[in-house]
Amino acid sequence: MKRLLYRTLAALSLAGLLAAGAALADDVLTPNGDTTWGAPAPTLKDTTWG
């Protein structure tokens, strides 16, 4: 019974670490489209203040 509990906790911990790693990688690798005061850029080349 103890062994099953340890395996279950290990599997849940591993799943949590994988989910956190995937979320962190997605956040780091996704380019930010925000260029002016929180407004999303209509194009990738738009860097003006207007």
Strand content: 5-15%
Q: Helical stretch count? A: 1
Global Rg: 20 Å
Structural class: mainly alpha
Order of helices and strands: HEE
Instruction: Specify the biggest β-sheet.
Output: 2 strands, antiparallel
**Alpha-carbon distance between the two ends:** 65 Å
Sheet with most strands: strand arrangement: 1-2
Would you identify the regions where 5 or more consecutive residues have pLDDT less than 50? none
Proportion of helical residues: 55-70%
The coarse silhouette is: rod-shaped
Strand segment count: 2
Mean pLDDT level: 80
In words, what does this structure look like?
- Residues 30-50 are annotated as: Disordered.
- Keywords: Signal.
- Residues 1-25 form the signal peptide.
- The chain is mainly alpha-helical and 50 residues long.
- Helix content is 56%, strand content 10%.
- The protein is built from one helix and two strands.
- The chain has one helix at 2-29; strands at residues 34-36, 39-40.
- Strand 1 and strand 2 form a beta hairpin.
Write the layout of secondary structure elements.
Elements: H1 2-29, E1 34-36, E2 39-40
What features would you highlight for this structure?
50 residues; mainly alpha; two-stranded antiparallel sheet; 1 helix; 56% helix; 10% strand; rod-shaped
